[in-house]
Design brief:
This protein folds into 2 domains: about 60-85 and about 300-490, Rossmann fold, CATH 3.40.50; about 90-290, no CATH class. It contains 21 helices and 8 strands. The strands form 2 sheets. It has a 6-stranded mixed sheet, with helices on both faces. The chain has helices at about 10-15, 20-55, 70-85, 85-90, 90-120, 135-145, 150-160, 175, 190-195, 200-205, 215-225, 225-235, 235-250, 255-275, 280, 290-295, 365-380, 425-430, 435, 445-460, 475-500, and strands spanning about 60-65, 180-185, 300, 305-310, 320-325, 345-350, 385-395, 465-470. By secondary structure, it is α/β, with parallel strands linked by helices. Strand 4 and strand 5 form a beta hairpin. The termini are far apart. About 55% of the residues lie in helices and about 10% in strands. Guanosine-5'-triphosphate (GTP) binds near residues 72, 399, 473, 474 and 475. Guanosine-5'-triphosphate binds near residues 68 and 74.
Length: about 500
């Protein structure tokens, strides 16, 4: 069959007119070239925008690193408080249980020290040994009356990780008695607590009505012991016993003893605030404040991931992911898989660790460990392009009552540390409350500390990268909010400039 040739109408329309003159042809081609140029430019711009959007849509990833008790989880809580306050509030009930565990645990550590004092009274001390004061009959009676609190601790811990034993980095029975409250970050501990306390809604909306019997009993027992706990903590003899206990055990090379010492000293530092607020936190209607939650100690095991949507200035809100890790030595191998693809590391170096040893290894000074850890992180090839944000933490600690923390102030001989506080610094610390004094530390000492970490960052970084330092006190929510605000703005700017939008 024959007919008209099958010509595409669009091709037909685009064909040059049949009677086109050479000048018309010339100007048509010129117009076509210009149109093509414009079209290519538009394509290029669209591609660039697509790539930029792809990059901008990628969440900003931050990894919190540092040794145990350096303040990583406290920094994360600040992120939550600032960026998802509703979720933070919804967890009040869960945190109340953690605060109660903190109180019970610190009381138990004091009772342990009193028990040591009683045992020591039956033996003859060495010529240089600090000697325990004799316990009064009132103190002995107090100790007996507070023993049932151990059941409260066991009950709360038992509910913390249902179906499994509460985790601990320590193993023997004795050590178990001084073990820290810790749960694996993948364990649904908050759900477990919620079930235990059955109060997630009521903690937000009003009084609890449906609390399980065992947890109610635990709270009532805590409330009933409140006066005795206050009396114990305020007894000057107890302070003396704790001071002698610390000095004695510091000089002993017995592993368990040293472990207990550092447990007492390191942990009570974090728990003192609750010992000073026993009446308030054991009240039957107690609801934790934001401040309480920031100070409540719950050791992290494993790595946990937290998602936020943050808005910097008039920018489009952006996804952020913050990773919190367990800082104990045995948990550090789990960090490495997270090194890849991080935008920034926030490293927390605690300033309050000159005279402390690691809870998990009493032969290691905390400051030395922190410096070695910083070196390892700075020189890691996986992190060579990652920005470093250093929080020199505890700089301004105004949140502890004066005097009561004085027992932890003695700076004793530190052998083999990479950075040694000067005589002036040591005198300064030993004269005043350790925690309270940090806000008044000689500025040249702080500058030295900053210089030390900065030098390592410069010396061990394989490539040029962002490096920012802040003096922080992450239990101070206002100050931390300002710092996290500037970290956010800085990372947003950095991300934008990487995606060439600015
Ligand atoms: N006063 C004061 N206490 C702090 C500060 N930072 C942390 N703490 C306390 O120190 C304790 C330990 O803090 P965390 O944030 O749990 O420490 P971490 O680094 O997460 O420790 P791990 O989970 O064991 O790795 C808590 O009781 C905190 O309240 C600070 O800046 N000032
Ligand atoms: Mg933690």
């Amino acid at each position: 069959m024959t007919g008209a040739p099958d010509i595409d109408p669009l091709t037909l329309a685009l064909q040059p007119p049949a009677n086109e003159t050479p000048q018309e042809r010339e100007s048509r081609l010129l117009l076509e070239r210009e149109a093509k140029k414009r079209s290519d430019l538009i394509d290029q711009e669209l591609n660039r925008q697509r790539n930029a959007e792809k990059k901008a849509a990628k969440p900003v990833k931050i990894l919190l690193l540092g040794q145990s008790e350096s303040g990583k989880s406290t920094t994360l809580k600040n992120f939550q408080l600032i960026n998802s306050p509703k979720a933070f509030k919804a967890e009040l009930g869960s945190w109340r249980a953690v605060v109660h565990l903190n109180v019970v645990r610190s009381i138990r550590l004091i009772l342990n020290a009193l028990a040591e004092a009683e045992i020591a009274a039956t033996t003859t001390p060495g010529p240089d040994d600090p000697v325990y004061p004799a316990l009064t009959s009132e103190l002995r009676a107090l100790k007996m009356r507070l023993l049932p609190l151990q059941q409260v601790e066991a009950a709360l811990l038992g509910k913390l990780t249902p179906g499994s034993k509460p985790r601990s980095t320590e193993s023997s029975d004795d050590q178990q008695s001084s073990a820290e409250v810790s749960v694996h970050s993948t364990a649904p501990w908050k759900n477990a607590f919620s079930r235990l306390m059955n109060n997630v809604r009521s903690s937000v909306d009003g009084p609890e009505t449906n609390e399980p019997q065992d947890s109610k009993e635990a709270r009532q027992l805590l409330h009933a012991c409140s006066e005795d706990m206050i009396r114990l903590w305020n007894d000057p003899l107890v302070k003396e016993v704790l001071e002698v206990h610390r000095l004695r055990l510091q000089d002993m090379a017995v592993s368990y003893a040293s472990r207990l010492t550092c447990s007492v000293s390191n942990c009570l530092v974090g728990l003192v605030s609750f010992l000073d607020s026993i009446e308030r936190v054991t009240d039957l209607s107690y609801q934790p404040t934001d401040d309480d939650i920031l100070k409540a100690r719950l050791k992290t095991l494993g790595v946990s991931e937290h998602h936020f949507t943050l808005k910097a200035g008039n920018m489009v809100p952006q996804g952020w992911v913050v990773f919190d890790v367990g800082g104990a030595r045995s948990l550090r191998a789990a960090w490495v898989p997270y090194f890849d693809d991080m935008d920034a590391i926030i490293f927390l170096a605690p300033l309050s660790c000159f005279d402390q040893v690691l809870a998990e290894d009493e032969s290691v000074n905390r400051l030395e460990d922190s410096i070695l850890l910083w070196k390892m992180i700075v020189s890691s090839p996986l992190l060579k392009n990652t920005s470093l944000i250093l929080f020199l933490n505890n700089y301004s600690s105004t949140d502890h009552s004066k005097g009561k923390t004085r027992i932890w102030t003695k700076v004793r001989g530190i052998r083999g540390v990479l950075w040694r506080p000067s005589e002036r610094f040591r005198t300064h610390l030993s004269m005043s409350s350790f925690l309270c004094s940090l806000s008044k530390l000689p500025t040249d000492e702080l500058a030295d500390m900053k210089k030390k970490f900065t030098m390592i960052a410069k010396q061990f970084s394989q490539e040029a990268r962002g490096f920012y330092t802040y003096f922080t006190s992450v239990t101070d929510s206002q100050a931390t909010s300002d710092i996290l605000g500037s970290v956010r703005d800085m990372l947003v700017r950095q991300n934008l400039s990487r995606s060439r939008l600015v």
